[in-house]
Amino acid sequence: MTNAKIISSGMHVPENILPNSYFNELLGEDVDTWLRENVHIYNRRWCSEHESTADLCEGAAKMALKNAGLKATDINLLIVATDTPEYISPSTSSVLQHRLGLTNAGTFDLNSACAGFVTATETAAHFIRSGGIKNALVIGAYAMSKYLDKTDKKTVTLFADGAGAVILTATEEKNSGYQTGKFITKGEYAGWMGIYAGGTHQPVNEKVLKNKDHKLKFVKKFPPELNPQIWSSLAMDLAKKMNINPVEVDHYFMTQININAIWEALDILGVEKNKAHTVMHDYGYTGSACIPMAFHDAWEKGKIKEGDTAFFIGSGGGLAFAANAFKL
Length: 328
What we know:
Layout: E1 3-12, E2 17-19, H1 20-27, H2 32-39, E3 43-45, H3 53-68, E4 77-81, H4 92-100, E5 106-110, H5 116-129, E6 135-143, H6 153-156, E7 161-171, E8 177-185, E9 193-194, H7 206-211, E10 217-218, H8 226-242, E11 251-254, H9 259-269, H10 280-283, H11 290-300, E12 309-316, E13 320-327
Parallel strand pairs: 4-5, 4-6, 11-12
Antiparallel strand pairs: 1-7, 2-3, 6-7, 8-13, 9-10, 12-13
Helix pairs in contact: 3-4, 8-9
């Protein structure tokens, strides 16, 4: 049976680095100490005025193509996972298809917030396994700095910009590639965090601008146990389907908003902390880009070996959760 294997990765971030000290000055208080001790974020990247989601995607895609040794015309499918698209319409993927010269690729955008990248790799894998696609380019991208209220310390200090990409290809190799996956949605939390203007329910107008409803907001504080419990439950489900123990998994790539949540999930699983590679320290929280960025960083640093098992577990506004497993 044809399977889908990840053969390369790439990432791209803006050049503009903002250290925690920038926010000490911006907000007039010490936020650096809390960020270091609680979420382990020290720096983050923000787009310049003329930089956007498509620019980040383009850089990550070009790196992934180069690392795969493929030409743009070799790609049959492009999926862009983002909740900070280039436009409401048309799709960011159509912009990228033209820029990159992906003349043989069909495209679409996918929005399940910060669970988007894992959802998109799951989708691409099934396209490949169906036999209709040979090479798929999947990009997770985030330019949330464009939507931040710079007076809101709950959001402005955490969120950042970047893009990560992977290329999946059809393979006949046994015990290689996609293994299994699972989605969970907790729609009762849909009103707890998000950007609640700009769509048809609330088009942008003077009232929206005055109330800053076009900016990212934490409306309610999420239960701290929510992510660790669901992430660990998803990991146990994947492991059960693969007939392995969670400790046998080589890598856990999880949503990178809070390192303590990652560690708590690993504690529940009985897994060592060093199996979860993290990049929020230097890049902040990059939403749907954070998992492919962490994956690429681990690959570049030689932490990933042929035959390793990797679990990808993402969560985002909605609340949407997605997890899948690959033999690399």
